[in-house]
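fwd from M.: "can u put these together and see what the complex looks like"

so here's what she sent:
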Amino acid sequence: MWPESFRRVVEQLSRLPGVGDKTAQRFALELVLEPALALELGAAISSMPTGVGRCHKCGNLAERVEGRPPECTICLDPRRNNKLLCVVGRIQDLLAIERSGAMRGRYFVLGRLLSPLDGVRAEHLPTAELITRVEALGVEEVILATPPSVDGEATALFLARELAERNVRVSRIASGVPHGGDLEFSDQITLGRAIEGRRTF
Amino acid sequence: MWPESFRRVVEQLSRLPGVGDKTAQRFALELVLEPALALELGAAISSMPTGVGRCHKCGNLAERVEGRPPECTICLDPRRNNKLLCVVGRIQDLLAIERSGAMRGRYFVLGRLLSPLDGVRAEHLPTAELITRVEALGVEEVILATPPSVDGEATALFLARELAERNVRVSRIASGVPHGGDLEFSDQITLGRAIEGRRTF
């Protein structure tokens, strides 16, 4: 009972992460009622694939420029500390760490985590690229910032072993009770880690 | 620190209802990682304003066809009951009622509800268009299906008064405890209505 071009927008929108049929329908209705938004959003989305690529050095988002491989603003920034390399699973995690302002070194985006259940095994990780990057920058410390989940821990453990033979310090981000978090409602693994990872006051 | 065309997509996406900066960013990242989706979604959204309009009879979504005003599938369907007209606030509500399968008559979408706080007064409602529609169809019963909220009730009351002089029965959708709902967690207004609106078993 829906017009064909409306149905097509709902179908495509529901392919976005966390968007079900009802949400897609709500978005599409908003776009029908606001044709100016539809035209601007449509044009912006259509032109993104030619405008944005992945940095050939670290995997972060990067502006595409004619004639040379994409390179992100972090890799292009000469004030960043080459001795510190932060390894993350996804671009989202890189953006989150950047927002914290606590990391002034370089990054490396894995793009995936070890996940035997999903068929992601060691050979699917960009380990060789990571090692090349460590050597090219002259990195002294690699911070493994994969999430404190089963897959994230397995990935960190695997990379720590691969990097053990290199002349580089390997560290892992702290896991514990989050800022503003309530001890009463923290799960036992988190609390266990908070105790184990305690620091002298 | 973001590529310009990525930033633009995030900005436009965050204008969708219920989408904040973080959700917009997550959608945009998905579109970067899936360029095929970006191209299809961008094209679908861009072409919607020329493909979809509002039905000139009822305000529902309608396919735009060259040379004549848009008319929706419900208004075009000869099997629908002209004697029953269901008045709703928004297209979403029409779609929800259609999904229930309980309404086989025609519709009229108001597009807004009376809301003195937002500056929507009686003269902003399409009352004349509604009456024209009632007369053109030869409607015998108007079902006021605006939501059971303050604005929805005010709108229903206003329209009921406007229609009182016409030779037409006016009804209001039932308000009470929803199917599968728990009495313990129903608010007192809903429970009050469920008792008042009780029906003989």
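replying to her w this: Chain B touches chain A through 54 residues (CB under 8 Å).
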